[in-house]
Amino acid sequence: MDIIASNSPVDIASLNERINRESAFVDVLSMELGKAIVGQKYMVERLLLALLSNGHILLEGVPGLAKTLAIKSLASAIHAKFSRIQFTPDLLPADLTGTMIYNQRENNFIVKKGPVFANLILADEINRAPAKVQSALLEAMQEKQVTIGDETFKLEEPFLVLATQNPIEQEGTYPLPEAQVDRFMLKVVVTYPKKEEERLIIRQNLEFANRPINQVVKQEDILNARKTVRDVYMDEKIERYILDIVFATRNPSEYKLDKIKPFINYGASPRASINLALASKAYAFIKRRGYVIPEDIRAICFDVMRHRIGLTYEAEAENITSEEIISEILNAVEVP
Q1: Rounded CA gap, 13 and 177, in Å?
Q2: Domain count, the chain
């Protein structure tokens, strides 16, 4: 079945040409990041997806997989202001957002802005901080603003929270509230590099000279690309496909998925539908294509959905993961 409607008002040929031209910087950016990061192409591609979709990203993986390096390198390559915040149990909201300081000379209070006033925020080990800190970050993530005292400050665009969490160390951690996890557009599981890649990592780290990351893209180019991403054509058949995938997590029986019903406590929220649509458009843009195809949805589905499906105790007892549930849904839902 053709996924581009013949009666479409969109001129796909000219749209393709325009997006092919405007997405040229993606290859340049990827090459520049490759100077510092060996392998981890999947993670780098997801970082670019989040940047182009204006969505926050949660990276989960054991220490030493270049998560921090990738985010820092991305900030250098687009000349963005970068802040790294190490989350700890004794962190206070003011350590994140800033606070009011008394000025003795002028006999008044002045605002001292915190590290959240940057373009790319690395929230390292985000699950180590208590709920008050998480709520302060939540306002910045959702509203793109920060309130200090009785003043509210808008955050500069691009603004992106890139959070990391360690899946193997649970002592002294606070599980993230479902409402906050849902604010992350993507949850990416970062895996170990291949043996050949790790050999190159060893060689690169034994060299004395660090390879500096140069600015290769302007921030204005990123902001303009975000507008172009929304122009990527999405047919009604693709929209229905997205809705079927999301609704299958809520009503598995309607899609002949009775076997996974006992494992789902709650299905994906409407943010899953919105983010699947937006991320698939960004994925098509990265692939230098002016329209979305079903393969784009399937490529980003796990990253968009894995943190939005609530598992039952039965699923945990049987070691059923959200990835297995998503696989079952993708196999059952009809592809347009």
Answers
A1: 45
A2: 2
